[in-house]
Amino acid sequence: MSFGRRTGLPDVEAMIPIVLVVTGRVTRAAVPGLCAELESLLYDSEGTVRDPGAGVDCDVGGVVQADLALVEAVARLGLVARRAGGRRLRLRNVPPELQSLLDLVGLADVVDVGCGTGDEVAGNEA
Description:
4-stranded parallel β-sheet; alpha/beta; Transcription Regulator spoIIAA; 3 helices
C-alpha cells in the first residue's frame, strides 16, 4: 500500500490572489475604468468584500509606456485595494522605467513592487 504525498498544509486551502492585468497604454481617462475593474474583483454584487484574506496583485508587464498616468493608476489602484479591508497592492512584472518613477514619487513604499512574475496565477485582463 502506498500513499501519495500531499503538498501544503492539510485541511488548509491555498490563498489565491486577486489579479488585475494591465496592458497597453494607460491614459488618465482609463484610470477610473481600471479602478472600477479592480472594485468588481474585490466586491460582490451586495458590496461585501470577497476573499478578505486574499492578496491583490496587479500585473503591469504588458504596459507599453511607463509614465505619470501609469503612476497615477498604480496609486489609485493601491487606494482601492486598501479600502477593501486594508489590503496592499502588489505589482508584478514591473518594467524598470516604472520602478524608477515609483521610486522618484515615493510610491515604492506604498505598494509592493516586483513580487513575482505572475506565471503561477491566471488573471483578468483590463
